[in-house]
Amino acid sequence: MRFTFVGDSMTIGCAGDFTWRYRMWQHLDATLGAPFAIVGPRGELYDTTANAPVSSAYGAPDFPAGARAHLAGWGEGWLHMAPVIAETVAAHRTDVLLVSLGLIDLGFYTDSDQTALNARAFIAAARTANPHVRMVLLPVIPNIRAESDAPFAAECDRFNELLAKAVADLDDPRSPLLLASRPPGYDIHEDTYDGTHPGPTGEHALAGAFADAMHQAWGLGGPYTPRP
């Protein structure tokens, strides 16, 4: 089974981060019970000094180089990933997409309606490359900006409603879609280091949201248990 992580700055991480991708790799390695691979066209972390994704300084030295693959980018969203997801799925023979996108779209590029259309385009494009691809989609977790920007907070809420509708409309037994739940108790003041990007507890929470969704709906792996 071949997994591809798709996301924005919360998923790519920056130099020194463990990333929730690492936490998910730990979980799959401990629970899946079958061969698996993490695949994708990129592997680097974002380097804030260089202002580019050029760092290999992961916080966990035991994170295998082959498991660091992803399709995530600092400042990238559904708008950017929809045009490239088909070629990624085809080139890397992806079976499962784990997707965390939307916050950057709503913050800088598109309103909730257009963002939802881009999400639907992403799903359709992925299926052109693999008609049986599975996808787990995480709702947007509003960041610290939402506490002082009511219109932005409302757009986040509206997009999550539209994303849930898209999952309900487009779910297909041949290519199932899952809407993961927002991690219970997730607190941007405790689980992130800047109001947006996850720290260690946030990384575990995000990985757990995906892991529990796959285990409950598809029987993949097991319930998420944080590991050191």
TrEMBL record:
Residues 5-203 form the SGNH hydrolase-type esterase domain. It comes from the Bacteria. Gene3D superfamilies: SGNH hydrolase. InterPro entries: GDSL_Rv0518-like, SGNH_hydro, SGNH_hydro_sf. SUPFAM superfamilies: SGNH hydrolase (SSF52266). Pfam families: Lipase_GDSL_2. This is GDSL-type esterase/lipase family protein. It comes from Streptomyces pulveraceus.
